[in-house]
Design brief:
The chain is of the alpha+beta class. The protein has helices at about 135-140, 170-175, 225-230, 240-260, 265-280, 285-295, 300-320, 320-330, 340-350, 355-365, 375-385, 390-400, 410-425, 430-440, 445-460, 465-480, 485-510; strands at about 30-35, 40-45, 55-60, 65-70, 90-95, 100-105, 110-115, 120-130. The chain has a 4-stranded antiparallel sheet. A 4-stranded antiparallel sheet has the order 3-4-6-5, covered by helices on one side.
């Protein structure tokens, strides 16, 4: 948003990321491992709700990656070193689709059987040696587990599918063609802790085999999108490329599950997943359509509807669809929203010229916030006052942010600049000078840096230091010539130099 020089009617733009919220994601509560009476090494991931998963073999490491989809990855759990069993390490990493657990450290190649249980919700992986004609117990004795001094934290090794073809685009297409079947819905009721005997009635879902999309409904393909084709053109063998392959797996599995869904709740569920997957990779237009369709469905999940609506509003704003973004923001059920969701939706309202509504929402939210969210909420509340020309109220709020040591660098950067603008507008020149000088030491955008330089020149002019003012404007023009405020500084400089020449001419005439 551009500042209007005479009135300072706008403040610095606060950028938002469309896809960084951890709201409505499942939580990984604990991970444990043990041995079953039948010779399997069992790894159990306990979560707070049913989650879907994808198991990928790491043949070069005699292990597996278990992708826990839609699980909060903001905090990566520490690695574990099982005391017994076929594996030596359980390590974790985040991925665009959720949390990834790496089960490695075996001396023999393993097979994995992955299934879900309820009460409590768990994803269970049973690992056994790939043996031919040998008793599994004997195989274990012949191949003792190798222990490493440190848990493995290395990047994901190449998966079986990533080694199938050296050409990146072909690898990605083969990954799509070889995806696992529709998301597993099978559950059981048996306990998962060793050494409880395994029950034959336990519902088990083995690692799914490759499956061709059903002919009755041709599955959509991400490769129909040019941006997605560019994403696929990564060098193989890198962690980023492997994450892309997993993302393609999950995306295509969700497409197939959507095609096979036979009720509105499932269709809404998989549209929602597709929307978030596309948004995570920056394919915003298609992601917006899928997420909007999920929210408009009669089968939408009411528990995630608020969080999804916030994301939808942010994505629409990022796409420049201001009126649709405003519609979502104004109609959000804020009573059911978390403080973080209310702050995010207030930012959308503020940036779509709904300062009054944003200010009302923020004023009711601030007391519910804790740092670092609290500082961001106060920054936005100050902006809502500023946009309504309530400069003193804006100053009161923003001073609490610039004096806080707990605000994030991004919030502190924008807060210092807005605080300087408030002091300038109120005529507090010394305070404004100190704040603008503080601002230029921060990591400002070119637009905001040029604004600070322009204002330093204006403050010098106010104080009668005309040579200093011209120096600030010249520096601003030279460093940021292509910015709006850089061009304004050039105009100010030209005008000031002309006035300086006239003053010199008049002085010479008076002496003559």
């Amino acid at each position: 948003m551009l500042r209007v020089l005479p009135t300072l009617a706008a403040c610095s733009f606060l950028a938002m990321s469309a896809g960084t919220s951890h709201a409505a994601l499942a939580q990984l509560h604990s991970t444990r491992s043990g041995e079953t009476p039948r010779g399997a090494t069992r790894v159990v991931f306990e979560v707070d709700r049913p989650v879907e998963y994808l198991t990928v073999e790491l043949p070069s490491e005699n292990g597996f990656e278990v992708h826990l989809l839609d699980v909060d990855n903001s905090t990566v759990p520490p690695s574990l070193s099982p005391r017994s069993g076929l594996i030596g390490s359980i390590s974790f990493r985040s991925s665009p689709s959720g949390m990834v657990a790496r089960l490695t450290g075996s001396d023999v190649r393993l097979t994995a059987t992955t299934f879900a249980l309820e009460n409590p919700n768990r994803v269970v992986v049973d690992l056994r040696p790939q043996s031919s004609g040998l008793d599994q117990g004997a195989a274990r004795k012949q191949s003792p587990v190798k222990r490493s001094a440190q848990p493995s934290l290395s990047p994901a090794g190449p998966t079986a599918v990533s080694k199938s073809d050296p050409t990146p685009s072909n690898v990605a297409k083969k990954a799509v063609a070889a995806i696992n079947s529709a998301v597993n819905k099978l559950t059981g009721s048996s306990d998962d802790t060793a050494p409880e005997p395994e029950r034959e009635s336990e519902v088990v879902q083995k690692t799914p085999a490759a499956k061709t999309p059903p002919a009755k409904k041709p599955a959509a393909s991400i490769f129909e999108d040019p941006d997605a084709q560019a994403l696929a053109a990564k060098d193989p063998g890198t962690e980023e490329f492997e994450d892309l392959l997993v993302w393609i797996h999950v995306l295509q599995a969700s497409v197939e599950a959507l095609n096979e869904a036979d009720n509105e709740a499932d269709r809404a569920k998989y549209r929602r997943r597709l929307g978030h997957l596309l948004i995570q990779r920056g394919i915003l237009r298609e992601g917006e359509k899928a997420l909007a369709a999920a929210l408009a469905s009669d089968g939408r999940n009411l528990e995630t509807a608020v969080a999804d609506s916030v994301t939808l509003a942010e994505v629409r704003f990022s796409l420049g669809d201001l009126e649709p973004a405003t519609d979502v923001a104004r109609n959000l059920d804020t009573a059911r929203a978390t403080p973080g969701e209310r702050v995010r939706i207030a930012a959308v309202l503020l940036d779509t010229d709904n300062a009054v509504l944003a200010g009302t929402l923020l004023a009711a939210t601030v007391d519910d916030c804790r740092e670092p969210l609290l500082s961001r909420a106060r920054l936005l509340l100050a902006r809502s006052h500023w946009n309504r020309n309530e400069t003193q109220e804006a100053r009161t709020q923003i001073r609490r942010v610039t004096s806080s040591a707990k605000a994030s660098p991004e919030v502190q950067r924008d807060a210092v600049l807005l605080h300087a603008d408030c002091e300038f507008a109120l005529g507090n020149n010394d305070e404004a000078l100190a704040l603008y000088n503080r601002a230029v030491t921060l990591d400002l955008t070119d637009e905001n840096a040029s604004w600070a330089g322009l204002q330093l020149g204006n403050l010098a002019r106010r104080a009668g230091r005309h040579a200093e003012a011209r120096a600030h404007w010249k520096k601003t023009t030279d460093q940021w010539p292509d910015t709006f405020y850089g061009t304004q500084a050039a105009w100010f400089l030209k005008f000031a130099e002309e006035m300086h020449k006239l003053s010199q001419a008049e002085a010479e005439n008076s002496r003559g």
